[in-house]
Amino acid sequence: MIKILSCLIPIKSLRHNFRQCCNSIQIVFTAKSIGKNFYCGKFSTVNKNTVIKNYVKLNGLHISGNGNVILGNYFIAGFDSLIISDSHNYEGKDIPYDSSFISKDILIEDYVWLGARVIILPGTKIGEGAIVQAGAVVHGEIPPYSIVGGNPAKIFKYRNIEHFKKIKNEKLKNS
């Protein structure tokens, strides 16, 4: 690893096309892989088991835990959101919980948008094109193109799928 302005970046990641990184001393990166045109806003942290695909924008996102996390193409995270892939073992050898953790993978598919201060819990899968409203707590499976919010997150409505696919196809032609 190379230390730049208190920003830790794996050497292999330096070859990637970063538009912005290290604009704050609170950025720590140890990602498994990072795609092209990646934007990293202030105060973002990513764990070593994270795969970041293309055109991803992190705005103060914190990813913690030992589970695998995949962030799909064109993923956008609002400020101060959390993705947590570990939970405490409350059925272990101590109460209220022991020192071991239970890790579960998290998959966020392409074109997903998280509002500010969203919390994604272990084992979550968010389908393509979903929108998660600010402040939502998400666990389980969120269907593609859905708009969810609340604690726990519930589906409010679905995006116009025809419109979504039209815009997506135009975007793919131009990239």
* Spatial sequence of strands, sheet with the most strands: 3-6-9-12-17-20-23-24
Structural domain count: 1
Strand content: 35-45%
Give the overall average pLDDT: 85
The count of β-strands is 24
- Main sheet: strands, sense, barrel: 8 strands, mixed
Q: What is the CATH T-level topology?
A: UDP N-Acetylglucosamine Acyltransferase, domain 1
CATH architecture: 3 Solenoid
Q: Report the C-alpha radius of gyration, rounded.
A: 17 Å
Put simply, the count of helices is 1
Helix content: under 10%
Give the C-level CATH assignment.
Mainly Beta
In CATH, the homologous superfamily goes by the name: Hexapeptide repeat proteins
Class from secondary-structure proportions? mainly beta
Shape, per Cα inertia axes: globular
Order of helices and strands: EEEEEEEEEEEEEEEEEEEEEEEEH
Distance between the termini: 31 Å
Q: Could you name the ranges where pLDDT drops below 50 across 5 or more consecutive residues?
A: 1-26
Topology:
Blueprint: E1 2-4, E2 7-9, E3 18-20, E4 28-29, E5 33-34, E6 38-40, E7 45-46, E8 50-52, E9 57-58, E10 62-64, E11 69-71, E12 76-77, E13 82-84, E14 86-88, E15 101-103, E16 106-108, E17 113-114, E18 119-120, E19 125-126, E20 131-132, E21 137-138, E22 141-142, E23 146-149, E24 154-158, H1 161-174
